[in-house]
User: Fold these one by one.
Assistant:
Number 1:
Amino acid sequence: MPLSRLLRAAALAPLLLSPAFAATTDPSTLHIANTEPGNYLAAIVASADRDTDAAGLYFREALRADPRNLDLIERAFAATLANGEAKDAYGLADRLAARDPGNSLARLALATRAFGNGQYAGARAQLAAGEAGKARDVTSLLLTAWAYAGAGDLRRALQSVDRIADPGVAVFRDYHAALIADALGDPTEALRRYKLAYAKDPATLRLVDAYARFLARRKDIAGAKKIYADFSARSPNHPVVRAALAEVDSGKPIAPVVANARQGAAEALYGLGGAGTRQGDELASLIYLRLALALRPDHDFAEVSVANLLADMKRGGDAIEAYLAVPKTSPLAESALIQAAIEYDGQQKTDKGLEILRQVVIDHPDDPDAWSALGTLQRSAKDFESAAKSYDKAITALGQPDKAHWVLFYFRGICFERTKRWPMAEADFKEALRLFPDEPLVLNYLGYSWVDQGVNLDEAFKMLRRAVELKPTDGYIVDSLGWAHFKLGHYDEATKTLERAVELKPADPVVNDHLGDSYWRVGRQTEAHFQWNHARDFGPDPDDLKKVLEKIKDGLPATPPGPAAATPPSPEPSKNGG
């Protein structure tokens, strides 16, 4: 059952009006209107942009003027809850449940509040009152089970969990049954359920960590370490696993993933939020995750999930706030700081990102991910000299590189090429291809560079054609092949290829500029000026703009120049290597 089924369509309809996502709203820029219609319209616009902060504020202001309007209560409640303002959302949920007793989202919020207050019978009553409770869906059954666990009733708790019949969530069911049995002191049942869940899914970190911690608390240290080792074979060097192994080796008492019913309910909400993210139910996921954090503010996995979700929704400022809220004691804190820095870079605040990352590498000087992230932001700032040094540190920290590390050599190669150290750049590109022989970005960059220098031409064109075969819809790679033909005077072939590149990237200034040059060389001067005008209007870099304006004025020289010193494929490769 899709998680969004729990959420009344009317409550989320205003939040789903548009696929466009807004950046975070600065509260100081919000202006409350003097009329209810003005605030309502502002709320609708904010909702269409998925700006839950502004939407919640404007809907609440509209509600002041019409406090009994059920539609406004519902909309204000959904936006406020999605924005993580639990206290205000609970008050709106009371009002909504009084007017619409079967509203499942309101009942879920009120059940969450009851868990937070230790009122487990009250939580069960709220869950039973909602329409979802009558359908006995996964959310209601899991939280009802944890409510029984809060009252110390293991039998009824497990009965509730076992009413979840959907085989698609069997792992989730057995995982929570194990957590409940563990929390209520039945290690035999807990072990049985952990084994069932783990046998079906040994690759989910949260389950792995809970199972291994259970074994360690039962003095099965070897078993716990094997669980972690098997996970590490799939995902090496995960910070959570490193921290857990250090905890096991310390000889100190091992904390369980879930110690009580409140934490168990938070864990259930966190898991449901993560499942919704995978299903594409972004707002439903955000609400579940916010409720999880309302019960357990130190749930680092939930906080990171919220941050990731906000980043995906293009709400960079909110994402940064969430990343920075991850507890500094969490094993996830370092990676959260790295992501916050990357978000700052995406907001054109690279200096702030660099400030964070410089401190991260001081605190974690042997972490290749930290050095790689610092190199990426330095490269974004066009500080290629410093970026190359950071990639040096990352590669040194790796030890023995494998296929996944091709991108470090690729990016360091770009930095070497931009700082006029071609032999070192060429060596790095070749090493990247040794690690990942068919990576189209590397084939494109190295092949183009060779053509531009007039060396290894047969191999270079094979590389470029192979790159296009691998990514035929990548306009930048198609542009590289066309521009390589142009550089060697193959103007007819260049024109055909560059026309395809422009079809794929119609708004890119460099691709349009290249096609204009090619049109000029085949005698299509009018069309050349048309493409150069496009290139000018699409916002090229200042140096490129100057050249484009000269071509619009004077055209190209009658005699094509010889190959220039190596210029990079256009445009600058993206920060994620794709």
Number 2:
Amino acid sequence: MIYLDNSATTKVRPEVLSAMLPFLNERFGNPSSIHEPGRLAKDALLDSRQKVAAMLGCQPEEIYFSGCGTISNNTAILGRARFVEANDLPKHMITTSIEHPSVTGPARYLESIGWDVTYLPVDSEGFVTAGSVKAALSDRTSIVSIMWANNEIGVVEPIAEIAQVVRDHSKAIGREIFMHTDAVQIPGKIAIDLSKLIVSALSLSGHKFGAPKGIGILFLRRLTNIMPIFFGGGQEMGLLPGTEALPNIVAIGEAARLAHLEQAELAARLLGYQKQLFEILSACENLRVTGPLDLSRRLPGHVSFAVADLEGEALVMRSDLQGLAVSSGSACHLGIIEPSQVLRALRLPDRLANGALRVSFGRDNSDDDAMLAGKALLEIIAKLSKHKAPSTAFSASNVSNHG
């Protein structure tokens, strides 16, 4: 099996597993206890907080550990919404039409209780512009939540430009607009420096960069106010209460250290695999790239496309039989093929959107994986299309790593 679904989840790194194992047996103390086992556990928690802060370019006290990216997103958005309501501030939120359900879900909930939510459209490649954000901002805006990179189509949004627009508008109206970004797909692929990227909050999930499932991160900039949406003990400064999952926290700390250390090298490798696969797929008829053609504006290692008149789930199942683990952006519900909201936001016709596929490379992949996957996908598409795949769809010269 060649695993090519790293945007969904990654394998736990051996170094990460080794780091967390002691905290599953001999170093089992509760960080809230004041005896020696508790103090050792507390030290490990603080060490992990420092490692994550180093990866993000922020202060350790700005890092909060959560159960996953979904919890981080909900805590940021709904926690800020509680603060807005408690202080009688305007109830307007701006987001986009291609957000993860853990952002659109809170947005829909806020609408149901009287908030005004603006869902910005994206262009045919999935981009939202800083200009469109600026046009949507008003004196009533209190929250902006725009993802940094999309898991389905690989688009990397101009988040620094957007954050600057929000910051400028905050100054103009004389109060803070809370700027949140879902950055779950970013670690290890794109450098993060929160001393320069001025967002209020940022969400991450450990299983996207070599840590186990069940651990996430919420960055909350110092002096930015949100109110808890969970209640219990005082852990994580009372914002995300509950006994800390220390083995997973140690794991995400080590994964963050490695991702920060290896980011440039890994990004270069992933770009190479990406270019190789796009080149091979350029021989395929009826294929359209979804997301950016310019690889400098796309997640490294991310390849997504749609094939006319095929079904994404059929492509996934055929790929599985050929030893390839990939994913689709369409799903079958009660016998009906339904494209995802992201593909619908690109305004793809159903005959294309129904045949969406995503290939996402990771650190354990190789050039051979890219070559073998490309050849296998060409064969699968040709068989399902009942004809060979001549070179007529898109030119590889249109897929570049230059702006």
Number 3:
Amino acid sequence: MTKRKILVTSALPYANGAIHLGHMLEQIQTDIWVRFQKMRGHECYYVCADDTHGAPIMLAAEKRGISPEQLVDEVRTLHVADSQGFLIGHDNYYSTNSPENKELASQVYKALRADDKIAVRTIEQLYDPEKQMFLPDRFVKGECPKCSAKDQYGDNCEVCGATYNPTELKNPYSAVSGAKPVLKTSEHYFFRLGECADFLKQWTSGSSARADGAIQPHLQPESLNKMNEWIEGGLQDWDISRDAPYFGFEIPDAPGKYFYVWLDAPIGYMASFKNLCDRTGLNFDEWFGKDSHTEMYHFIGKDILYFHALFWPAMLNYSGLRAPTGVFAHGFLTVDGQKMSKSRGTFIQAKSYLDCGLNPEWMRYYIAAKLNGRIEDIDLNLNDFVARVNSDLVGKFVNIASRSAGFIAKRFDGQLAGSVSDMEILARLQAAADELAAAFEAREYAKALRDIMALADVVNAYVDANKPWELAKLEGRDARLQEVCTVLINAFRLLTIYLKPVLPKLAEGVESFLDVAPLCWGDAQALLLGKKINAYQHLMQRVDPASIDKLIEANKENMQATQDAPAAAHEPLAETIKIDDFAKVDLRVGKVLECNFVEGSDKLLQFTVDLGFEKRNIFSGIRKAYQEPEKLVGRHVIVVANLAERKMRFGVSQGMIVCASGTDDGEGLYLLDVDAGVKAGMRIG
């Protein structure tokens, strides 16, 4: 087998809070893949880091009365503990606030500037006169310029879905100080992304040849389709600078100007690997040089695909470095069919899971059993979690060892039989190695684990057919008892090899039990015969459903203050209108034909709505309230049908879907229902 050289990263957690299970999904997916590659004998490194720069970090540190450096150091310690608690085997976990990252960010910038890919323009921004700082879009709030909804962010309305510049807000105010912002001009630095379209068309649709001869597409099919839409829609130049005060790296030769966090964050992958190279003697240039023959893969969430599949490869290419071999995007994690919720106790922090005494390998197995190579959301159903772990890991897998090891220890002094006649079952398990390897390579973990558990069923059927507990009672059947138990121990070892990327700690326990060196994938081609093994120690207990109740309670937001508080005043009525004013609004019943998430937006859903006489494309800012858009298909909604078309970054919106809105930051948005019997196109009013 040809040895491959592989560098793997997962997205950098932002240094403003604890890691929750949604974040851990990605690290688990990445870690399983890396462990599999190492078991195959490849040279593989997994690096990551905390994403530490930006105005939010600066302001959060200021609020606590500490320096940004102190804050990011504190958070990094927590993040490392969370990752280690879930058995994530980073080869290096670093920080973007590092000397290596500062040096590399400057090198990339200077190379882009030398290639005429940097432009300088004067732009107009909102400025907080009290805080004396330019305000990022998310730090400006006001009334939506389209629908007049109050307390909307400076880039997007969560009520009507409109996108706009913060300067378009009505009655804007600073979310930092509450002051009324003023317009102020400033020079900003831009990466000429629009000039990179030809390269990006080629790269996004292209592939790379691996050292083993396999062809690796750069993107998944779903990612490629989305990138084509964005490229064909016209790529805009990317603002890569921010003004002081800002926590980040100052741009070379531009005093008071700082790199925008999204420029130096992905370079943090390089910096973390550079730090590893300096510590271990690896040749950094061999991995990041333009003609590198190594492989580089990024595991990311679908919400940051735009940055990793467009900005990042373009930055690398035009600064004289290699582009990624592959970008692997995954979907989001829901809990019990809904987005994670603090009030329901399902916004589960990684640390809380561990503090409640839950085995991290239970969660690693359950998440892996749901993951595939496509961009699909997965659901953590807590009842199913208990049932599947108890059934698969304890009832099917660990049960094989517990029902055979005792006889080997007590009756044969720990000695396995020197040969066995029942080779068919072991040969069947050995023959599965290549197909299971292909599934792990393709990140089709759900398929791999289904197949492994199907093999465990075969082994358990062998247990029931040969009944070692019955053989132990019969005179003169010791040889057969030793043979049957040796077959079972070998079957258990083979299954452990296949499960080791998912269950590394349990695999260590099995290696100790069998008194063998760390198991590799190639070990599946050999059997363990005539060897003395150690006494069996319990490897895994069942999940107690009560521990799940404890976990939910531990993660519930304290609602008492909310319950004791006086009821909020109703939002004031709008200005009185006449019947003629209302008659100008054409409300129609629409039937939802399609509904999807909008890549690059954490607020919008994209609807295809049948109005009876025509189909409309409508963007609506209700994503926070409806995390399973496919469930809206077939539903009737109310549409403002005569609203002027609005050109948005993601396309043209041809109407507005009417919602009732609450005051809890987007979770109180509700689609309005109509009675049964209505038809698409019916007018309301």
